[in-house]
Design brief:
By secondary structure, this protein is mainly α. It has 7 helices and 2 strands; from the N terminus they run αααβααβαα. One of its GO terms (biological process) is ruffle assembly.
Length: 132
């Protein structure tokens, strides 16, 4: 089932890569692959949709626990099919689109904090001349 979901998401990514509107977007292939990984990580039941429980668990993992009502509002912001869940196309539209949603901001922030790795080992030696 997971392989099937991955193949389905790859097909959707391919549509974006071939779409004239998105072709000029910077690092589009890499970004789509990251979105696919994020989506699959949070789609707990591998249904192809982020339902209210998937989003609730995702928000809790990110340290941003929300009420059911808040989550329903977040989903409604990006759910174009009015299904009460976020499908992968909605997810990609949200992440690539210009419109800013609460969910997008949280996911972007979470991705940036993952990228900021702390340096390993001893700190470099400093002297008085290197201080600001």
């Amino acid at each position: 089932m997971l392989a099937t979901l991955g193949a389905t998401l790859d097909e959707i990514n391919k549509e974006y890569l071939e779409d004239e509107d998105w072709r000029e977007e910077e690092d589009i292939a890499e970004r789509l692959e990251n979105y696919k990984k994020q989506f699959m990580e949070y789609d707990n039941d591998q249904s192809g949709d982020l339902n209210i429980m998937d989003v609730k668990i995702m928000m809790e993992k990110l340290g941003q626990a929300k009420t059911h009502l808040e989550i329903k509002k977040m989903i409604a912001e990006v759910d174009t099919s009015n299904s009460g869940a976020i499908n992968y196309k909605d997810f990609v539209q949200m992440m690539l689109g210009k419109k800013s949603s609460v969910l997008k901001l949280i996911l972007i922030f979470e991705e940036k904090t993952k990228q900021q790795q702390k340096p390993q080992g001893l700190p470099p030696k400093r002297d008085l001349s290197s201080l600001p």
